[in-house]
């Protein structure tokens, strides 16, 4: 798949806010650096409207950007030069297969660095993993909504989940999830390219939703319906300034935040049913 890389130059203190805004557009991967960040959008989704919206955003924030076309076959080379192992305490390591295995880590996940969100470098992914560490997955039915590279589904499987479904709207992400499941010897993840409606009528003990604020807000009623009575819904991909609005919508669907994690300006919540 071909991509456009948008290279943002800005005060790195603005990274989180800018990524949140840019994330509302069809960009599916972000890579922070010393001078700002890069955002990647599939070539098929790039339109003049996307660029115009970035130009409008410049009226509110101080940044510059340039764009570069990336042929699909160059993507692995780019990732391999930038992808570094991620350690989430002594609980989980996320690495590529060209990295050496870690020592004294409970779960070692091997993720091929392809064009799909979820390498563990983003705060939201790390918070989801930290929240998962304290949950019981043994024998549970799990749904990974917006699975990206499949990290969370694979970790849940290794933690003892009996059956898992993983869905992503991006074909590249779905394919990468399948590849990463095989690489991690995980065989009980049913992955597909699709949307939330594809699991309508099914129920889960744990639902993992690391996406973005708008998708979570519009999906909350359906996610609550798919959650078992004593189940748990983990959500992330929104900022601290979104928390009050999130809590208001969470209460409307009769869920309550049992736990809240923060990293930088990003937030993750562990939700439980009220009824």
Kindly summarize this structure in a few lines.
This protein is α/β, with parallel strands linked by helices and about 280 residues long. It is about 30% helix and about 35% strand.
How would you describe this structure to a colleague?
- The protein is globular, with a radius of gyration of 18 Å.
- The model has no long low-confidence stretch (mean pLDDT 89).
- Strand 8, helix 5 and strand 9 form a beta-alpha-beta unit.
- The strands form three sheets. Strands 10-9-8-11-12-14-13 form a seven-stranded mixed β-sheet, with helices on both faces. The chain has a four-stranded antiparallel β-sheet with strand order 2-3-1-4, covered by helices on one side. It has a three-stranded mixed β-sheet with strand order 5-6-7, covered by helices on one side.
- It contains eight helices and 14 strands.
- It has 275 residues and is of the alpha/beta class.
Q: What's the SSE blueprint?
A:
Elements: E1 3-10, H1 15-22, E2 29-33, E3 36-42, H2 48-57, E4 63-70, H3 75-82, E5 86-88, E6 92-95, E7 107-110, H4 123-133, E8 141-145, H5 151-158, E9 163-168, H6 171-183, E10 189-193, E11 204-210, H7 213-225, E12 227-239, H8 243-252, E13 255-263, E14 266-273
Parallel strand pairs: 6-7, 8-9, 8-11, 9-10, 11-12
Antiparallel strand pairs: 1-3, 1-4, 2-3, 5-6, 12-14, 13-14
